[in-house]
Amino acid sequence: MYGLVNKAVQGLVIENYGEETWDKIRERANVDVEMFISNESYKDSLTYDLLVAASEIVNQPASELLRLLGHYWITEIAVQHYGAMMDAGGNSFVEFMRNLPNFHGRVAMIFPNLKPPTFTILKEEKNSLHLVYESARNGLEMFVVGLLEGLAKRHGIKIKIDQSEFKSTQPVEGVNQTLFLVSWDSIS
Ligand code: HEM
Q1: Pocket test residue of 1, 75, 121 for ligand 1, highest count of atoms within 8 A of CB
Q2: Tens of pLDDT, residue by residue, the chain (188 residues)
């Protein structure tokens, strides 16, 4: 994945646990890169190794770290560094969700080798929507949960997310598909 993702993992760890803890994590993960370059591609395994090492060293489940990474991604990475793109994504949570399927298409203009996730809205109701997440990567579902929670917070609503396995009528070899049922209270 692009260095931007590893930089986010580094930022999250340093902000919450300090530089020393980050150095221990890097050592445990056998990562000798001191400064990640945002627009350079790194092996996916490097990111996973960092997350596994972080989980062991700060004694938090990897799923919880992924969720926090999703929050951090929205508040620190996306809003602060890609504010215009985030604003163009929509003025409300629902609007942002409607534009989410095309969002990484715009991101790919900055990061041409992007292997983005795919999002599809299957159903939209007044206070809920069904969102399908597809990725060739494994185990990032809680990152998506954190991202969605971060987006909801940014737009002033609180959401509930239920996750279920998704059996597509058109399964794709090597692609994981997850269905998220996202709901919220009425917005007055
Ligand atoms: C300006 C904001 C954003 C930027 C610049 C951005 C950029 C990126 C980049 C560089 C990657 C790594 C993929 C690769 O290197 O191949 C990535 C992955 C990912 N992004 Fe975004 N992204 C943004 C917003 C979002 C939002 C709002 C969501 C969803 C709610 C999202 C969901 C994901 C997920 C789930 C992945 C993990 C890759 C996977 O599942 O295969 N991103 N994004």
Answers
A1: 1
A2: 999 999 999 999 999 999 999 999 999 999 999 999 999 999 999 999 999 999 999 999 999 999 999 999 999 999 999 999 999 999 999 999 999 999 999 999 999 999 999 999 999 999 999 999 999 999 999 999 999 999 999 999 999 999 987 877 777 888 999 999 999 997 65
What pTM was computed for the model? 0.96
CA distance linking residue 82 with residue 65, whole number of Å: 22
**C-alpha of residue 104 to centroid of ligand 1, in Å:** 7
Q: Spell out a b/e string for 6-20, using b for 16 or more CB atoms within 10 Å of the CB, else e.
A: bebbbbbbeeebeee
Question: CATH assignment of 68-184?
Answer: 3.90.1520.10
Atom of ligand 1 nearest to the CA of 148: 30
Domain spans in the chain, listed from the N-terminal domain onward: 3-60, 68-184
Nearest CA to ligand 1 atom 7: 107
| Atom 29 in ligand 1: residue holding the nearest Cα | 147
